[in-house]
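MODEL INPUT / OUTPUT PAIR
PAIR INDEX: 1
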Amino acid sequence: MKALPLYKHTLLVLLLSSFLCSCKTIKERDFSIDKPISKIVPPLRGSIDIANLKKLISYGSLRVSGYYDGYYKINKDFDTISVLVIDPTIRNSELRTNPERYETRVTFSEDKRVSDIIKLFSKEVYGDSTASGNSTFGDIEFELISFKEKKNPLLAFFSIWTLCIPSLVGVPVNYIKTSLEIEVKITDKEKARAFKYKAKAKGIAFIAMYWGYGDDAVRKSNLSAYKNAMKSIKTQIQNDSVLLAELHKKRE
């Protein structure tokens, strides 16, 4: 393969640096909620299946840096992680005399898409508070039924073919589209009554300078899909709000 001239390498580095510096990032306002569930129904105690979220979205990733370098996605749940590096080129004598040369660090990172959903659902149920009061009608449970994420290969190819130069004027490098289905179940304390609500939705976020996102595009797409699905869920809950209020009043 023919190597790129030095000036092209420099151009690519400058383009990448400019791109990352000029993209939007996730802010606290991205977690704002219009009319949370806590404003529609009686007080509830929330729960969420975190293991299910990780299974469908991600268990996180490992970053190996130092003498050895790499990035690895984790595809199953775990209690502890061990990283074994097999390198037949290592000289034992040099490893004993100069161990600092082979220093390698391993860092685990949780997937923020999982914690983002947990944060949003908590705000739906409790508002800005983090705990429920003693006088609750019952429980509200959140479950992620399905989750799918995809990119646009044509946009990616166009960006590479043009050395990302159109990106300087805001042409998208790619986009992230998230499709998901969620279920919310409300039950009274006695588990005598149960109300189930389901919704499917999509969210999209563009990877672009100035008006789009960089690394946070996956989070933005995930947040948008969640909010769109929850909007439908809350419309369904609103239809039962009078009945829920009456049931709660009878138990007071």
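PAIR INDEX: 2
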Amino acid sequence: MTVRVPCMMKLSEPSKGAMFHRLQSMATAMVADQLTISLRVWTTIARSTVNSNCADSATITVVRVADLSPGEGTLVSTNPPTYILCPLPTNAPNPYLTICATPCPWWMTDTNLPACWQMTGGLSATNADGTISRTCRRVDRRQLGTTTITATAGCSSNTVVIIVQ
């Protein structure tokens, strides 16, 4: 989506910055999407000279957490979603439950998620290339207890609770 904001007033450089900040704030309230803001302003060079050839633009990608859920378990509560799983023996070959968050827009990956994207709780998960995953966490099913996993992107947040008992 492209938004063009014509400005019929004279703006100083600090005012242009404030205008962009307001537009960025409005964009974060949108549903996740890519937004290009083009701002054309009149700037005063000297008291009698007006420059109308100044234009600025910025592309803003609004990201939210679309989903956070485990691949297995029995759902026992919905606020927050709480799942119960049976424990595994200490010698289980793959004792970890992996919980992955799905970002929106769907094409976001570990490498291009914004800095505001965070996951907390549980244990870190590793990607196929050996890097720490920014979209997945793990729960050790050999350990009895409760683990809360939260995915956050700015003001968008999803939480899931895993109980191993």
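PAIR 2 NOTE: The two ends are 48 Å apart (CA to CA).
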